[in-house]
Amino acid sequence: MKSRSPINQKNKKTYIKWASVAAAALIVLVAVFWLYNQEKNTDPVNSATAPSQSQQAATSEEKPEEKAAEEQAAKEKAAEEQAAKEKAADEQAAKEKAAEEQAAKEKAAEEQAEKEQAAKEAADKKAAEEQAAKEAAEKKAAEEKAAEQKPDSGNKLDATQYPEDLALPSKPTIISGVLLANKQHPLPATYAPGEVKEARSAFESMRANALKAGIDLTAFSTYRDFGRQKELYAGYVAKDGQQAADRYSARPGYSEHQTGLAFDIGESGQEQHWASSSFGDTKGGEWLKDNAHNYGFILRYPKGAEKITGYMHESWHYRYVGKKVAADIQSKGITLEEYLGVN
Questions:
Q1: Which pairing describes strands 178-180 and 314-320: parallel, antiparallel, or unpaired?
Q2: Nucleus among the record's keywords (predicted)?
């Protein structure tokens, strides 16, 4: 039998040779693989976040467009601001123009009002002058008429008597601006002014001050027209006869109540003294005698003056003549006829 040692030795060398080659190849592969991973894993953050060349190129291409857009936006904003300024300026100019136009209108209105006021004052002055001339003429005519009626004996005319000519006039008698109504100076049947507002206002002022003294005055009879006076007078004549009625009641057309200026005054709560001579002795009657002239009223028919006024004493009958005339009559202690110089 042959020995196996030489064959095994030969195979062993071959085996070692290929084993070495395989080991070297494996080492090369490991080295290549290691180098590949080393290069891939170097600076992982920068490699992940750093832009690529293509990205940088894209960014560089986008910058001019963004700049142009920003410039356009800035231009548009500037244009909007300019437009807002111009609009504000236009609105301010419009307001100033409107204010100027309004001021011009107001000035024109003031000038027009001044012109109208001046024209009115001129017209009022002319009317006052004409009225004064008219009143002077009427006063003169009344004086001449009174002189004609005066008896030859030199005695004053008896004012209690109605004239023989009972025809009513076409106009009322006004002397020195004061309306006169008595038995010698009647009113037109058509004269119907109603209650005069000025007289009512004066009465209300007087009443308000009387209340402060604990006196509640009331005007229980004021304006009466021609028809109403006719009814009243006819009733008084039927009751007491004409001669008696003529002493305390006026015939239609001769009553002061038809002027709208006469007020029959009493005191609330004292009705028993209304239209009675006893009213003059009451607290309200005394207050009126002392204070009525301060409000433009006079006691129209005082005691002892029947021959002058034409009527018996009436403590309740007050006539509005205005403060100036009332104060003058009060201070002199005279009647309206004496003040006007007709008796």
A1: unpaired
A2: no
